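sorry for the late reply, my laptop died twice this morning and i had to redo everyting from scratch. anyway the thing you sent over, i finally got around to it. pasting the sequence first so we're on the same page, its 401 residues, then the predicted structure underneath. double check i copied it right bc i was rushing
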Amino acid sequence: MRIHCKIVVIAVCFGVFLLLYFFGGNAADDPPLKEVEEDNYFPKFSGLRNNVASKLTKKTLDELHIPHKQPLTYRKVSKVSSRGGNAIAKSRQRSDMGVGRPASKRARAEEVMHLAVVACGNRLDETLTMVKSALLFSIKSIKFHIFAEDPLTSQFEKGVILKDVDSLLYVDTDVLFLRPMDDMWSFLKAFNTTQLAAMAPEHEIPKIGWYSRFARHPFYGVTGVNSGVMLMNLTRIRSTLFKNSMIPSGLSWEDLLHPLYQKYKNHITWGDQDLLNIIFHYNSECLYTFPCQWNYRPDHCMYGSNCKGAEEEGVSILHGNRGVYHDDKQPAFKVVYDAVHEYPFEDNLFQSLFYPLQTKFLDTVNTLCGRIPQVFLKQVEKSMRTVYEKKVVRHVRPPPK
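ok and here's the structure:
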């Protein structure tokens, strides 16, 4: 009997030991309660995706503020022990900061681009639409220099003397940016040691160009240049003596313009553009010429397409001279102007700008300039994707291994 009791006691003890071992091992594999609670605290990733989408569709003018606001800074978040919790915690951190570029990139001193325009007469509406197009598609900060007649000065900020500005892009009021101004600004890096300004040729084909047929004064190259889009290194311009037909020793820019005008005033038709052509006729080494798609005008399509760069890459900067934004002579140009003019900043670019633009272009396909819509639309679509990626989508670095 005693032997049986001992066997029963040993069996019971062994069973208890097994139970303790079993439950103890399973408990060690369970995640701590604190960790589970922290995981449940963070939102699901679908919420982050919806947050990005909502910020895109509700984009405000503040996102395009010039200059940019202070750079975002990362906030420290306590680490969670498990890999899943750590990943979600980092996602929560990025969600709290909103949409923007990484702090490591924004923290660097940002280059400011300078854009100048002269607004005269009834050009206020055109000027504001041009400014809007520059804001819509550009990435870096832009400082605007607007020169206006007395009746318009109250519509703009106070005038500024540009003596401290190193480089500048000048455009006419009837210009629209269809891609970031940043890309035009990069031409400054292509200047050689003597070049101090950049313009596009007035025409691609000499036999139908204006200067090659009608000019009564010297002009640059074979077809002359168009001053509607002019990139300038002002530092070099201020320090250069320009060759001319009046004084052998050369004259500075400010000393040259008035006597040049007095000499040729009875022979010029296009004002400042003619004077610039005369200057660079005698100083051709100072001028850099960029392709026609950076100053695309009705002349490039109204006699048949003659801008190969626009056919291949699309129009980068649209120049609606001849008043084509405000009449029905070139509907393709008017369609683009109206789309930018009517676009409200708070709306989605694709829904309120690009899709209406595509639809309206269907009415222009029977015209010479509108027969290839992609010439006008290619860079617009590409630029909107660039703006979306730069200003809306946050590119997250992979976690260190």
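The chain has one domain: 110-393.
thats about all i looked at so far, will dig more tmrw
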